[in-house]
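Quick question, first post here. What does this chain look like in 3D?
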Amino acid sequence: MAYHFQFLGAQVRGEPAKARKIIEGVLAKNDGNATATAKELGVSRPALYRWMEFLAIPTPQRTRSRALAAAEDPKATDDE
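> Answer (accepted):
Ran it through. Tokens below.
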């Protein structure tokens, strides 16, 4: 069965490994932000999640924002 992946205007036919590498690279570049990754790839966020499921790419876990972490840990912003 042939699969058709289209990201960033490039077509990857029958090569899920290439599609997986593209998605993982863009996810890493966007610090796991699925919304930014989907936008950069030119697909909807639900479509990105479907491709991630199909290609067995783990979904990014939500993390606390840096601002929240800094507010909870005063040493994180201490200038001394």
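The first strand starts at residue 4 and ends at 7.
Helices lie at 16-29, 34-41, 45-54, 66-72.
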